[in-house]
Amino acid sequence: MKKINITIVFVLLLCSCASKKDILYFQNLSDYSSKPDTSKNVVIIKKNDKLAILVSSEDERAVIPFNGVANNKTSSLEVRSNQIIEPEYIVNEEGFIVFPILGKLKVANKTKSEVVDLLESKLSAYIKQPEVSLRISNFKISVLGEVNQPGLYPIDGNRLTILEALSLAGDMTIKGKRDDVLLIREENGKTIYNSIDFTKGDLFYSPYYYLQQNDVIVVSPNNAQIQQSKNTIKNISSISGILSLIVSVAAILTR
Fold first, then answer.
1. How far is CA 146 from CA 19, 21, 37, 227, in A?
2. How confident is the model at residue 224 (pLDDT cuts 50, 70, 90)?
3. Over the range 132-152, which residues count as b (16 or more CB within 10 Å of their CB) and which as e?
4. For the chain, what percent of residues have pLDDT higher than 90?
5. Contact between residue 185 and residue 192 where contact means Cβ atoms under 8 Å apart
6. Is 221 helix (H, G, I), strand (E, B) or coil?
7. Where does residue 122 rank: exposed (0-12), middle (13-18), buried (19+ CB within 10 A)?
8. Which residues contact 77 (CB under 8 A, 6 or more apart)?
9. Rounded CA Rg of the chain
10. What gap in Å lies between CA 185 and CA 210, rounded to an integer?
């Protein structure tokens, strides 16, 4: 009896080690001595992005024409309770926005800072020391699969890590496959599929650590969950077969 108990304990320990290895995040962080370079992880402006742009300066009257309604019908400026809502400009299919007085500006495939520099450079011909704030107002990401709260999440800021995205979705469930999370991204008109391993520390060095607008994260069920689902289907099929047999026998006996 003691031998049986020892064997059961040993098997349970082996199972717990395997599950721990599958569940823990970033198990090899000690292998990395340097900090990741995040300078290249910047948001790139794309077609159909909605840009909220506000121009400011010491001369408040000078900026009024640039914060008013532009030729673009999607632009607006409202003042409510002393709070300014920035005009919004949709990046068209050619990658342009139509900005008041400045006209058409090419912004697609540029970073936010590049567009801000472009605007401030052109505005300096009309305004002394202009300052431009820019954000992507329709920035959103989707988290699907084995997470506690799957869904579409609008993002207020324009800098979000994949870990923050999982936090918004309530983290992966215990059934989620942590070493093969799918990230779907649109780049230059093409759909990119990338597998991310959350059990490894190199995620912090990945170009996919910071998310882009409209990224989709898909957490697949782990092998144990898949096997359990298969067994459940088999059990349901077996039960259905038994019930069918019982009904058939009952019908024969009734006759």
1. 16, 18, 30, 15
2. low
3. bebbbbebebbbbbbbeebee
4. 53
5. yes
6. strand
7. middle
8. 67, 68, 69, 84, 85, 86, 87
9. 28
10. 12
> How confident is the model at residue 19, as a pLDDT?
57
Name every residue whose Cβ is closer than 8 Å to that of residue 28 and which is 6 or more positions away in sequence.
200, 201
pTM: 0.69
Six token digits for residue 190 = 């093409």
Domains (ranges, CATH) in the chain? 50-136 (3.30.1950.10), 139-221 (3.10.560.10)
The dihedral through the CA atoms of 41, 46, 48, 53 has a sign that is positive
Length of the chain: 255
Q: DSSP secondary structure string, 160-194?
A: -BHHHHHHHTT-B-TTB-TT-EEEEEEETTEEEEE
pLDDT at 172: 95
| Closest to 60 (Cα-Cα) out of 84, 89, 88 | 84
- 154: Cβ–Cβ under 8 A, 6 or more apart, which residues? 138, 139, 140
Give the mean pLDDT of 169-183: 94
CA separation (Å) from 164 to 30, 147, 172, 209?
22, 13, 12, 10
Alpha helices in 53-92 (DSSP H): 60-67
Helix ranges restricted to H, the chain = 2-23, 60-67, 112-123, 162-168, 223-254
C-alpha dihedral (132, 135, 137, 142), degrees to nearest 10? 170
